[in-house]
Amino acid sequence: MSWALDVINPAGARVGASLDAWPKLKTQGFRLPELRVSTGRPDDPVMLDLSGCGLGDCLSALPAAQHLANGGGGSRQLWVLCPSKMAFAFAPLDCRVLTSAPDGFLGLRLDGLAALQQTMLAGFAGFNPVEALCALADCKPAVPALVPNLSLVSHAERLIAAKAPDRQIIIVQPRSASACKDWPLDCWLDLAERLEAAGGRAFSSDGPSGHLQPLSSLPPSVEELAAQIAVADLVVAPDSLGLHLAAAVGTPCIGLFGPTLGKAMCRWYPLARALQSPTSLGTGSAASGACPPGLTGLTVSAVEAACLEELGDG
Length: 314
Hints:
Elements: H1 23-27, E1 46-49, H2 55-60, H3 62-72, E2 78-81, H4 87-90, E3 96-98, E4 108-111, H5 112-121, H6 129-136, H7 150-163, E5 168-172, H8 185-197, E6 200-204, H9 222-231, E7 234-238, H10 241-249, E8 253-257, H11 262-265, E9 272-276, H12 300-310
Parallel strand pairs: 1-2, 1-4, 2-3, 5-6, 5-7, 7-8, 8-9
Helix pairs in contact: 5-6, 7-9, 8-12, 9-10
């Protein structure tokens, strides 16, 4: 039996109909592929397919997954297909978490990647992945919520006590998946020195970058990074995983944006503050690489001021 590859909603209605609540999406021509009902029975599972989505977008899907797991799919069991690095985020939900595609799937498949791509291709300037994925699941958007592993949180607290006692902890992400979204490394290093002088301590979210070091001896897994971010005082990151993790675990964060629109991306992140680089906005997409690398319109002084304000020293 082949997969049901078409995008549908759990109630068996045309997905486009669920977008009536989102006039901005509708007016920008946002349309999901036509509905087709699979050959599965009505009580077969609904699968939220995030296998092609980025790690940050998987976190943006948490409200949609929580809605479906809590009965939004009717009597259907929820299956979540996601990258193995993100399985931990969905494990606490009442669902089956898959990291590889099942053979002969019978049920209703919600294609998360198609929803995100359709929204972006529509030219919707205020693109927000939380809203697109919630529309796919036929539910209202909500703030993503992730409960970090308590054992890993305790380990992160011990690392902080050993490496930076009595310091405010800032997790920074110098690199993203796309050079279009990155801030120059020398800016990150300058920022780290300034925060150190102000009584903070910056740690890298991944591997070493100059004198910026990760909190742990090895680059953390996504689950370990979530725990480290949960005990940090602030996160500073481009439009990438660190920003989305901070929002999901409830840590204040400053997002550095260029080709993507910060105010729109952070709309469901109440503790996030977006700093927009005017020199990069609208110059291309991160996916195509058509924009100049580096958020050159953001000065170190501007980011430092935002950090100190968030940390209570401004």
